[in-house]
Write a structure and sequence with these properties.
With 310 residues, the protein is an alpha/beta fold. The chain folds into two domains: 2-108 and 236-308, Bordetella uptake gene, domain 1 (D-Maltodextrin-Binding Protein, domain 2), CATH 3.40.190.150; 110-208, D-Maltodextrin-Binding Protein, domain 2. It has helices at 2-11, 28-44, 59-67, 81-89, 124-133, 148-160, 172-181, 191-199, 247-261, 264-272, 285-302, and strands at residues 17-21, 48-52, 74-79, 100-116, 139-142, 165-168, 186-190, 203-208, 234-242. Strands 1, 2, 3, 4, 5, 6, 7, 8 and 9 form a nine-stranded mixed sheet that branches. It is globular and about 65 Å long.
Amino acid sequence: MLAGVSAEAQNFPSRPVTLVVPFAAGGTSDVIARTVAEQMTIALGQPVVIENVGGAGGSIALARVARAEADGYTITLGNAGTNAAAYTIYPKLSFAPESFAPIAVVAKTFGIIALRKDFPAKNLQEFIAWAKANPGKVNLGHAGVGSSNFLICKAFAHAAGVDVTLVGYRGAAPALTDAIGGQIDGVCDAAASVAQPINEKLVKGLVVGANVRLASLPELPTSAEAGLPDFEAQGWNGLFAPKGTPADIIAKLNAAAKTAVESEPVKKRFADLSTVAPAAGEQTPDVLQQLVTRDVEKFRKLLADPGDQK
């Protein structure tokens, strides 16, 4: 049996690899996944095919991957929402942190609050004042309870001390579409999705939860500059395989991911998306596992009140 496993690992991959994205097409996770998959395809010599599986803040997709054969041919792109906060938000999940083998961190992201273009507040302080004067009346969209965008919303509302209504979607793209159309007041999203609509004046950027301004949005203030230093929203995206995937196969996937994020096409695309590739020392499975362990505890504390999961 061991000989069979070794031979399979040596021949991996001999067919396409499916990369399950836990959200609808067009959102941050999807854009990052497609950017990385294109270069992983070259590195592996086999297609890396995107499959979008939305719903339940990414948990439907992760349940599918947890049940998949541990052979490297089904992997997923996760984040702090799907792979850490979800365990507090959805306590009866069919999977656990141990259900996945980390492969590599592939991107670091920056959370932004953006409003419909005709929202009355012109800046963050005006927005906070308006929200406090109208508790529960501001609607902010996100990619589903448990998504990284949901966590951006929670971190923002907590730091600002405002009562806002959070509206979950099956992905970031439909939430952003409704904000552009004025059906909701704004979105909590990553720069990868919302930078271009802000620059095109389709929505109004309010603040970025980072300690430096983004090159693609030079006029958007950081949380400290806008007067809300406690709002921190720097996230990560990582690749995971089902538990039990052979170490040799994980190593091949890790090498392909490293090659992808260090390639010029990915670096250029990430720069356009205000997304940062991890440094060489951050691309190991161990670093991704450390992020998961840290964030499981972090969001257990942040989301301790059941009333927060809305």
